[in-house]
Write a structure and sequence with these properties.
This protein starts with 10 loop residues before the first helix and ends with a helix. The longest helix has 19 residues. It has two domains: 69 residues, Orthogonal Bundle (Arc Repressor Mutant, subunit A); 38 residues. The chain is mostly helical. The chain contains six helices and two strands, in the order αααββααα.
């Protein structure tokens, strides 16, 4: 299922996913309300149908309406999106991606953020040695 999130989402699909990740579940009307410059109700419903077909969301009947939910947790989706970004823009190199984050044009990182990154690098080194 994570591989399915590797497929690029349109801007509207991403907006719908953002609403669902924030709320956990929502009706079509609630999703539309949460979207910036929301399209028509029928356009939202069409996008929801497409997202169901792609396997990104699922729905269940709740009385006269459908409740929509993401099929993956937000953390899984973030990891999948990041893998795609690294693969697409950095030739699969995590080192190049991190270098881009740490170059002079990146926003200032706090000591705590730098310490956490250093700790994650140490954990990765420890995993490689085992």
């Amino acid at each position: 299922m994570a591989e399915q999130l590797e497929h690029q989402l349109s801007r509207r699909e991403r907006q719908i996913m953002d609403v669902l990740f924030q709320s956990g579940q929502a009706t079509a009307a609630e999703i539309r309300q949460g979207m910036p410059n929301a399209p028509s109700d029928s356009a939202v419903r069409t996008q929801l149908r497409i997202l169901v077909e792609k396997g990104h969301i699922r729905h269940e009947q709740d009385g006269p309406r459908y409740l929509y939910r993401p099929t993956l947790e937000k953390e899984q989706a973030k990891k999948s999106a990041l893998k795609r970004l690294v693969k697409t823009f950095f030739n699969g190199s995590a080192e190049d991606a991190m270098a881009a984050l740490l170059d002079g044009s990146a926003p200032h990182l706090s000591e705590a953020e730098l310490d956490r990154m250093a700790g994650l690098i140490q954990q990765a080194r420890a995993r490689e040695q085992t």
